[in-house]
Amino acid sequence: xxxxxxxRRAGEVPAPEEPVVVLEHVSKTYxxxxxxxxxxxxxxGAIPEGRFVALIGASGSGKTTLLDIVAGLQRPSGGRVLVxxxxxxxxxxxxxxxxxxxxxxxxxxxxDNVAFGLEVAGMGxxxxxxxxxxxxxxxxxxxxxxxxxxxxxxxxxQRVAIARALVMRPRILLMDExxxxxxxxxRTVVGGELLRIWEETRPSILFVTHDIxxxxxxxxxxxxxxxxxxxxxxxxxxxxxxxxxxxTLRSQRFHALTAELWGLIAxxxxxxxx
Amino acid sequence: xTAEPLTQxxxxxxxxxxxxxxxxxxxxxxxxxxxxxxxLELLTRGGAIGPLILPPPTTIADTLASSVTxxxxxxxxARTASTVAIAxxxxxxxxxxxxxxxxxxxxxGQALEPYLIALYAMxxxxxxxxxxxxxxLGVGPVAVIxxxxxxIPVTINVRVALASVGSVLPKLGRSLNVSxxxxxxxxxxxxxxxxxxxxxxxxxxxxxxxxxxMEFILSxxxxxxxxxxxxxNFDGAHMWAMIVAVAIVAILVNLVLVGIERRIRRDMx
Amino acid sequence: xxxxTQVYAPSRAASGARxxxxxARATVALARLAVVGCMVAAWAITATLTxxxxxxxxxxxxxxxxxGEGWITEPLGSTLRGAFGGxxxxxxxxxxxxxxxxxxxxxxxxxxxxxxxAFVVPRVVLYPAxxxxxxxxxxxxxxxxxxxxxxxxxxITAAAVRDVPERLVxxxxxxxxxxxxxxxxxxxxxTAAPVVGxxxxxxxxxxxxxxxxxxxxxxxxxxxxxxxxxGQQDLPRMFALVTLIFVIALVVNMVLWASERxxxxxx
Lengths: 274, 269, 267
Fold this sequence. Notes:
The structure holds three protein chains of three kinds.
Chain A lengths: L20 E12 L2 E13 L4 E6 L5 H9 L6 E6 L2 E2 L7 E4 L11 H5 L1 H5 L4 H14 L15 H13 L5 E5 L7 H18 L2 E5 L3 H7 L2 E5 L4 E8 L8 H5 L1 H22 L1
Parallel strand pairs in A: 2-10, 3-8, 3-9, 6-7, 7-8
Antiparallel strand pairs in A: 1-2, 1-4, 4-5, 9-10
Helix pairs in contact in A: 4-5, 5-6, 7-9
Chain B lengths: L6 H8 L10 H22 L10 H11 L3 H34 L1 H14 L8 H8 L3 H25 L4 H8 L4 H39 L4 H10 L3 H33 L1
Helix pairs in contact in B: 3-11, 4-5, 4-7, 4-9, 4-10, 6-7, 7-9, 9-10, 9-11, 10-11
Chain C lengths: L10 H39 L6 H14 L3 H31 L1 H16 L6 H8 L3 H25 L3 H9 L4 H38 L5 H10 L3 H32 L1
Helix pairs in contact in C: 2-10, 3-4, 3-6, 3-8, 3-9, 4-6, 5-6, 6-8, 7-8, 8-9, 8-10, 9-10
């Protein structure tokens, strides 16, 4: 997944890595009966290779819409999204998505769930099952291959969704509040699992959440979205050391970062709750 | 409703909640049925219930046993069964397509909704005369009416089933760039099947009820017709034997379908 | 209806949302009227193509005559009395029985298969027995309707009572409610909507069965009129009666459906 080490001559400054995803002045306006509603005003940014980016903002600030646009599920009204230099016009192989709600196919086994994307892409049964089994092991669900999703807990079902996304070997993983429906404890555990899995596979990740603690815990940088019409209000670099663990959660730096972020979205959140 | 083991009584007693002797439900059911039959036997033999209304259950059982081997019964059964099969197939097929259409074109579904609901209360039999002039006498009108009766619950249930799939799974499909055919085959249809099958089962039930009722009223042929004929000939025992036969067939078919439905729910929900 | 965890928007957007909803509802209502229009149009067109379907005009005339001359009123009353009377009887017995069934796992496990089995049997074939007991008048129809309406009421009420979340019951018990208070304050509002749905379905079944019974044998009623009109080949009269039957089915269902939805939304 990581690029070849560059051969550098003495004195040469290494060229910066080409970002995987580039957002150029993305905007989105909906037509409603009352007239146009501007959901996203202007969001620009770049996500480098292997970087974990969290996207936070108050409820209703268009985070999901933005993610959908990056995923190619919606077209932007203005601006564009580039993946590997190419404009995104629809869903692409390089992008895989994990949703907040349970998206497992209840009539299929866990193995066939994880293999679903590969099946759609036309891969043969033996190969895709092999890869799916590998990924199932990686996400810590081995032993559950033959089970039905209906027999799994919420956290496990999300792990199935993550496995299904990762088995496609995406360049970037788009996650829309994937742990939102889980309780606090499960969320922390699965979050740690996600980091472990990510260390092994290293896609870029764009992770939408409304939970500041989660964002700081997981990400390399956090983008703060203003409320409607959304703009990228700020970018906070998370310089916490990896691998992160429960002591990270108690560190001074963690608290400082979360306080900083809370300050940034406080006014938006208060206005939204009014 | 699951079959509960005999230890259910034990559990209830142990938990202190049983204040009287409780039999396991399966056993209690048979006790109830036998008790009711026993009471009926006494009342009918004693003369409290006249033979024209209800002959003794034992007589009915005898008559039934001797009738099932006759050619007449076999012909009646074949006629009714084939009509039910045709009606169910057409009603369920048309109902599924219509239900999908009403789901796809949302406004159409909402516009037709009240009329579909009202059709449950509509004795579709009253369309018989039009059907006779169109299809002539015979199995046609009966099958069409029974098919209409089957169509309504199937349409309603298929529509509800498709609506219940939600938005995440189609979104997943779109994010994987699935073709239209695959969206239906691998996502929509399997996701909708558990709820839709309830509609299919109801379709069968109504097709059966409709067929027998039409045969009964319109003196066509089949088991329903036989019941009407027996009534007019004052042959109480044979009439009730046929009623029991119809009941047994209907209950058996329903049980099979309930079994399938349960299996589907277990595997697919 | 799940309440959206939505942001409380400023009042302008809220009234906008309300306006949108009302516009959507108006569109649906218009579409439903349009369906009637289409049905009438289709009727008028097919009537010109075949003699076995009378024209819309002649049918409406026959219907008006029926009320004007009065040959519809008494049979209509008899049919409605049979249907509603049977429904009332079935509700009287079925509602409490359904409630008891809903709360008792044992009773449910025992009786559910029996009730479900009885439901799938064509009940109309029992009508001759009822004729034997009650004679050919209103009572036989009442009994038929009651028999038909009983099953949906019991089965659906039992399911509704069973589905009342246990936490609601615990709330009631925490306040030391008597059985009667529990029933009135917790179960009644919680099951109101599905029970009305059960009554609606029960009416439909009762109505259908009464008319079919009348087609078989009865002293008076809409079904009797239909079979008479058929015998006399009086097509406009027959179609007028069919239209009347459909309108009754539609109106009663709509009224009950509306109250069902109001109760549901208040939950």
